[in-house]
Amino acid sequence: MSTPDSTSQPSLGDLVSDLGGDLSKLFRQELELAKTEIHEEAAKAGKAAGMFGGAGFAGWMSALFLSLALVWALDAAIDAGWAALIVALLWGIAATVMFVMGRNKLRTVSPVPEKTVQTLKEDAQWARDLKN
């Protein structure tokens, strides 16, 4: 009687060990993908925040100096109080426009790592198919 060659087929323990190692490697790769995606989205959010800050500072400086110039110019035609009110309303409109633009930019930031979620779904499907 011949005995099966034990070196040609891996044992059940070897298969389980290989599967555990593969799953561990897969988990590490998914974690790296998630980190990469989150980093990219954080960079986009940082740029949007910088735009908000820059818009705020530029708007403040512009409002300050242009308001003074416009109030003095309008003071020649109408009372200084009304001139200051008109100028304040104009800068309020400008601030609203900048806010809406910044908010729209911020809406493009996705807090969910979409690629990672998709690959995790694919991995789960692969594991189910392997089980069957």
Element-level helix/strand string: HHH
Shape: rod-shaped
Helix count from the secondary structure assignment: 3
Distance between the termini: 34 Å
Question: Helical residue percent?
Answer: over 70%
Largest sheet: none
- Oligomer status: single chain
Question: What would the average pLDDT be, to the nearest integer?
Answer: 83
The total of beta strands comes to 0
Low-confidence stretches: none
Approximately what portion of the residues adopt beta-strand conformation?
under 5%
Number of domains: 1
Which class best fits the helix and strand makeup?
mainly alpha
Radius of gyration: 31 Å
Question: Describe it for me?
Answer:
The chain has 132 residues and is mostly helical. It has one domain (12-120). It is built from three helices and no strands. α1 packs antiparallel against α2 (80-106) and α1 (12-75) runs antiparallel to α3 (114-131).
